[in-house]
């Protein structure tokens, strides 16, 4: 295949659909015989994933790698920021945590910032150099590189410190397609403003616009499409309709706002306790799609008590969220519901909360040194600066299952899955993606064998690719990526 330029999907803002569009093109390029790979220099997300080497990257790049048909690798997302409060984030570099950083301090220097343990050894980390080197390694192996920007490309106050948007596109010599979300309104202003706020040499890199999440009759936007091309001076290469019947893992916490929040009659009601620092909420996507289930997110104590199954999810701040559960009454509601015969499941940080105590003597997470847990499982957990990240295979009800671990904290049990009556705790993310687990929890078997998760995902990536391919000018995009000028 001929060598294509790298392509970057930049955005007019957060949650405009960059990750999903990038995943679609990873699958399209693969279908057309290329060997694509995803890349996002810097990610800020609590939904993460463990690579085959046991290292940590943003969930979106793991999804995009699946769409491209390749194993995920830290070079696809060399820098990951995991918010632990409104002001601080854990910094994960090349899959390993290197310390916590205050947001103001992180963004203040241009690109060199002392961090955590490496700072103690007198090292200073040039993040720009690190992410560019990761891209360069990836570019020697794959064609093309499908790049994703972060948030808006027009955050002018952060532009001189940008590692992920136009500065990365310049390093990669990428063709940039700007993605705008028409569903939220103001698409003309956001697209035009995003382009006009770029420096002249950066505007030349923006080769086209993709309008995403269109609802209604496409013919009504024909004039608007022409107007947008006239005022921006770049072609509109696609108008992608909103879809509701294709299921791709979401990374951004913004998508939580669109999740169900109510109990429903006639189904198995699964309540996911809504934590302030919830992480890896993709753990529940497979169960949410099960026709037997109404899965909803709540911190309403009445809804928790009347749910059939209660799930305590993962969190980036276990002790802080545990304290909040005690303050808002959810802890008591969970214990009461369990006493009344309801099933309670804890995953990762939620598993730790179900234990007897959670201690943080070295203040890895914050100021809270120790709290009593909910006491439903006989474990004691101590927070540790060492993070466990690995993919795992485990047995459940006599069947082999798959998952992965990403957690800080050590519990005094060697069991990967701890069952005590109607309470189950595990450090394994992806636990609920396995049919034997879901069937066990729901106390029933599907009438026909359930489609495997791997087959389901492949079908969804193909459907996404077909949807996007139908509504973008793919020939024009290939022409842009092949142009030698």
How is the quaternary structure best described? single chain
Helix content: 25-40%
Number of strands: 27
Tell me what portion of residues adopts beta-strand conformation.
25-35%
Task: Name the shape in a single word.
Answer: globular
So how many helices?
Answer: 17
Query: Which structural class should the secondary elements be placed in?
Result: alpha/beta
> How large, in whole angstroms, is the Cα Rg?
23 Å
Name the strands of the widest sheet in spatial order: 2-11-1-12-13-14
Task: Provide the residue-averaged pLDDT.
Answer: 89
N-C termini distance = 19 Å
Sheet with the most strands, sense and barrel status = 6 strands, parallel
Q: Which regions have little confidence, pLDDT < 50, spanning 5+ residues?
A: none
Descriptive account of the structure:
- There is one protein chain.
- With 485 residues, the protein is an alpha/beta fold.
- Helices cover 31% and strands 28% of the residues.
- The chain contains 17 helices and 27 strands.
- The protein has a six-stranded parallel beta sheet, with helices on both faces. A six-stranded mixed beta sheet has the order 17-15-18-20-26-25.
- The longest helix has 19 residues, at 453-471.
- The protein starts with 6 loop residues before the first strand and ends with a helix.
